[in-house]
Amino acid sequence: MANQQKIVSTLKEQLGNSSDFKIQDIDSFRKKIILVYIESLIDYKKINKDLIEPLLFCEKEDKYLVHLLSLPPCRQLKTGDNLLSLLIKGNLLIITTDSIFSYNAKKASNNQPGDSSVEMAVLGPQKALSENLSTNINLVRNRYPSENLIMEQQTVGTMSQTSIALMYDKKLVDHDVLRDVKKRLPEIKMDMIQAIGQLENAMTKKKHHLFPIMMITERPDRIALNLSQGKVIILMHGTPFGLIVPAVFFDFMASMDDTSHTFWSSRLMIAIRYIGLLLTLVLPALYIALTSYNPEVLRSQLAATIAGSRAGVPYPSFFEVTFMMLAVEMLVESSMRLPKAIGPTATTVGGLILGQAAQQAQLVSSIMIIITAFVAISNFTIPVNPMSFSIRVARYPLILLASFFGMMGVAAGLILLICYLTDKRSFGTPFLRLYWGSSRRIEKINEKPKGEQG
Amino acid sequence: MNRKAVLVCTFAVLAGLLTGCAYKDIDKRFFVTSIGVDYSKNPQKPYHVSLKLAIPSPQVQPGKTKFQLITEDADSIAEAVRVMKSKVDKDFDFGHCRVLVFGREILRKHQAEVLNWFMRRRDIQGIAYMALGDPTAEKVIKVKAKSERLPSNAIILSFDETSNDSPYIIPEILNDFYMRLKEEGIDPYLPVIQPLKDTYAINRVVLVKGSRLSKELNMDETRILNELLNTDRRGLIDVKKDENEFFVNVESFKTKTTVVIPRNTKPYVNVHIKIDGYIESSEKKLSHNYELLEDQRLASEVISNRVKSTLETIQKIGSDPLGLGLKYQAKHGVSEDKVKKWNKIYPHIQFKVKTDLKLRGTGIMY
Lengths: 454, 366
Description:
heterodimer, A: alpha+beta, 5-stranded antiparallel β-sheet, 16 helices, B: alpha/beta, GMP Synthetase, Chain A, domain 3, 2 domains, 4-stranded mixed β-sheet, 33% helix
């Protein structure tokens, strides 16, 4: 009896004045049962149904205890357990005279999967992940009903204690990658981790890296597909995104719609995406190189038109390109976070009026306007968002090289970029690896041991 | 780390100063679209060089081409170009110079020097079209063709097989001309351009004997030479014998030429021509197949005779644009003796022409 009171008073002391900290005394079986919980985390209905009602029906304490232990989220605590952290995680403590039980009655929040809004698919599944971890795990399990699917739960963030789930198919998974992921997760030293991107950055060893080596996705179908390809999935509580490890370049160019189109139409879409990738990467640099160093490469007709339209432009071509690229980047950046009501206005003002006016004022040539629009549009053909950001960044070094060395600079820049990508590893997997089918069927590259890289 | 940052900053600033000399915007260049070289009648400054400079405009419309023609006399082409630079506001860019026109006199007198400059400049493309200007190169360059959207573009289009397949036009590019000039056993030729009001006439070709300009071929001979060169240019063959006159529209024209040196008899050249075509216009009615076959036989005969006489004309001039000498070398070796032997054989060699004409039909009318 005294023990019971002591525990309660210690908890009271530790949690202090928090007004949602509740202690409830129930007299039953001529004994005292104390329920301790944090109100805001608890689902009342669940307690009522699972704990209070049976208490009233049970005649004997023994019977009630059996009932308690039969509940799946309930367990008897041992002396070593940290009561405080259990409370904070949404557990209810049932303190009887002899022992303490914890009962997980956490209120589920944001557990409705929303429509996918980042990676949209025309014909694919329409729902994305939710912000609730258990809902997400449920979604994945439903899509991947395999007895080999393993789920391991952990927490990251010293203060945020965000719970994450590691999921993989134990038969198909690349064990080197899995070992590496499991090694890296405890090494993360961050206080607050709230977004999956943060986790991705924390897990990447190199500080200055351009291309993402893990894929963030909001689509349960992509997660299931990647599980079947032997990848490791990390789901985090509180974000509607999952992390796919490892990811190679060609994964970032694949859309989930590719699987639902007919063969030739999906081939065309993929081809268009790669052409878009190339255009958005090299077009501005090519413009500089062709107009200022090697106009003989162009057809005479085009050369004359460009020369004519540039005749009134007072600044050199790299200034022209920098100016227009700046405008288009600002446009993209501003329209990304604008409320939906203002978005169209910004694009109209920025895109139409600014472009038209800049050309009329002879600040840029009309060819440059075409190129700018082309670059912006073709950038959006890249289906996965982080990759399209990386490509946006990658074109600036090319512009720089083109304005110093012309065509040769562009060619050298592209070769350097390919070298960089070739050298890159995603958890030991070569970043430019051609990837299809499950990892079982792909021969392992063992020149460098996996782990410790990327 | 700090030192690194300082270094990067320094390089960035320094790089900003290094705009360098290769960087020249497209609007700061004067595109030379064609070059004409004539003889100036002044032995001290024999080269009369004319450059046609394109004035670019953002709107391209047919007949609205603007250009500037500048000329200069100098003792070399390089010198002339250098002096001409002082007459304009922008730097010359020869990257789009596709037409090189030469006067007859300058090629007679200074062919080697002229070609040397064009071959040596890296910005003059090897695919630039060469031509002979009649009467002078400058007059050819001066013409403003009504249809052209860009200065000199009309000449380029006429020479381009995809836009003009007239059998009277034999294009010759710089690289090919140079190859034919340097190679034993094949001789170059140059198309002749005559300026007309608002347009050009290109229908003759001038042959080169050895390395010297020789005689011109007339229109019909030019056409036959073109056909023998196996270009894809096709035309019309007119056949006239007595009362019967008809025209054959040529669908395909293929020739196979072989040099035959038999042991005992005289050497001869075997020319085998294969023509596919149909009747385009006929004086008489063609209602039976035997009439068509008769026409076919007649046309083959006429064509064979014509080709033979053209080949003999070319032989008389002493030029070898078909590369018969090369064909001989391919069989008999390339030594100096063989070349000499061929030079002895060629003036007396016989031509045996055989024509396989196939008339596919009579057109859509009987």
